[in-house]
Write a structure and sequence with these properties.
Strand order of the largest sheet: 1-2-6-5
Largest sheet: 4 strands, mixed
Low-confidence stretches: 22-60
Structural class: alpha/beta
Number of domains: 1
Radius of gyration: 18 Å
Helix content: 40-55%
Mean pLDDT: 87
Order of helices and strands: EHHHEEEEEHHHHHHH
Bound molecules: zinc ion
Distance between the termini: 33 Å
C-alpha cells in the first residue's frame, strides 16, 4: 500500500527495453563489473566510458517489461513495474507544481524513464544491471533495472518496501531536477570526500526525493482527482530511511573493502543520507536542500 487506488496513470509514460549481454563478457570481467558497480551505483550522474564497448544490446534478444496493465494506483500497489509508472506520474505532477511555486522561471521538463533488463545503450555509454539505477544528463533519462530492488534486499540488506523503491526513483529524478536547475554545470560532481561536491550533489538528490515524498501525499492526480500518495506511516518512512542508510558510502565500503574511508566517498554516509532525505521530507522545500550552501553536510 502506498498510492491511492483510484489514481490513474498512462503506462506509455515509461519506456521498457534493453537486451541481454552480448557475448564476450566472460567470468574474467566479473571483478571489473563489481568495481564499476561500486563506483557507479547510485551515482545517477554519468557512467560514460565505464562499460563503453564491452556491452552492447543484442537486438535479437531485446526484451521489455510489459507495462500495459499498469493504469491505476491499485496496480502500482500490486506490481513493482506498475509502481514505477505511478511513481513517475506523481513525480512529474509534483515537480511541475513545486518548481512553479518555489523556483519561478524554471519550467519543469519531463525526463525519460526507461526500465531495462540486463544491458542498455544510453547517451552516457553502455550500462548493465550492475550499474544500479542512474540518470544520464545527456539524454535526460532515468534508467533502472527492476532487478536492483531484489539486489537491494539480498546484497545490501536494504528495505525494498514500496516507499523505499519510490525513494530510489525519486533520488534519480532529483538528479534531473539538478540538471534543470543548472546544478551539474555549477559544480564538479567528480570531487570526492565526505564534504566534497560529489557527496553534496548526491545528498541534494536525496533531499529532493524527500521533497517529492512531502508533496506527493497532498498533490492531486489531475486524471482522477485523488491525491497520489497516502500519507506514509512512520514504519514506511523508517523503511525508506533504512534503505538510504544501507546504500551509504560507509556501509558499502565496510561491506566490500572492510573499512570506510571518508576521503573517497561519493554519495555520503548512512547518517548524511538519512538526514538530508529527512530535511526534504519535513520541509518540502527546494531551498532547504541547498547542500552547497551548507558549511558542512
Ligand atoms: Zn545519485
Amino acid at each position: 500500500m502506498s498510492f491511492n487506488e483510484g489514481v490513474r496513470s498512462d503506462s506509455g509514460r515509461v519506456r521498457s527495453g534493453g537486451g541481454r549481454r552480448a557475448a564476450g563478457l566472460g567470468g574474467g570481467s566479473l571483478l571489473a563489473v563489481v568495481a564499476v558497480f561500486l563506483i557507479a551505483q547510485f551515482t545517477g550522474v554519468d557512467v560514460s566510458g565505464l562499460l563503453g564497448g564491452q556491452e552492447a544490446e543484442d537486438p535479437a534478444t531485446a526484451q521489455g517489461v510489459d507495462l500495459s496493465h499498469c493504469t491505476t494506483g491499485a496496480d502500482a500497489n500490486a506490481h513493482t513495474e506498475c509502481r514505477m509508472v505511478t511513481t513517475a506520474d506523481s513525480l512529474d505532477t509534483v515537480w511541475t507544481q513545486v518548481l512553479t511555486s518555489q523556483v519561478p522561471g524554471v519550467a519543469y521538463e519531463q525526463p525519460g524513464f526507461m526500465i531495462f533488463q540486463d544491458s542498455v545503450s544510453t547517451a552516457c555509454g553502455g550500462a548493465t544491471s550492475a550499474s544500479g539505477p542512474f540518470y544520464c544528463p545527456g539524454d535526460k533519462t532515468v534508467y533502472l533495472d527492476l532487478g536492483f530492488f531484489q539486489q537491494m534486499e539480498t546484497d545490501f540488506g536494504a528495505s525494498a518496501a514500496p516507499l523505499a523503491q519510490e525513494y530510489v526513483v525519486a533520488h534519480e529524478w532529483g538528479h534531473h531536477i539538478q540538471n534543470l536547475l543548472g546544478t551539474f554545470q555549477a559544480h564538479d560532481s567528480q570531487e570526492q570526500g565526505d564534504q566534497g561536491a560529489g557527496v553534496r550533489m548526491e545528498l541534494q538528490a536525496d533531499c529532493y526525493a524527500g521533497v517529492w515524498m512531502n508533496h506527493a501525499s497532498s498533490t492531486v492526480d489531475p486524471d482522477s482527482g485523488e491525491v497520489f500518495l497516502r500519507t506514509p506511516s512512520a514504519e514506511e518512512i523508517a523503511q525508506a530511511l533504512q534503505t538510504a542508510a544501507a546504500i551509504g558510502d560507509d556501509r558499502l565500503q565496510e561491506k566490500y573493502q572492510g573499512h570506510a574511508d571518508s576521503d573517497t566517498w561519493t554519495h555520503g554516509s548512512a547518517e548524511q543520507r538519512q538526514r538530508w532525505l529527512t530535511t526534504g521530507l519535513e520541509s518540502g522545500s527546494v531551498e532547504q536542500c541547498d547542500t552547497f550552501a551548507a558549511d558542512r553536510v
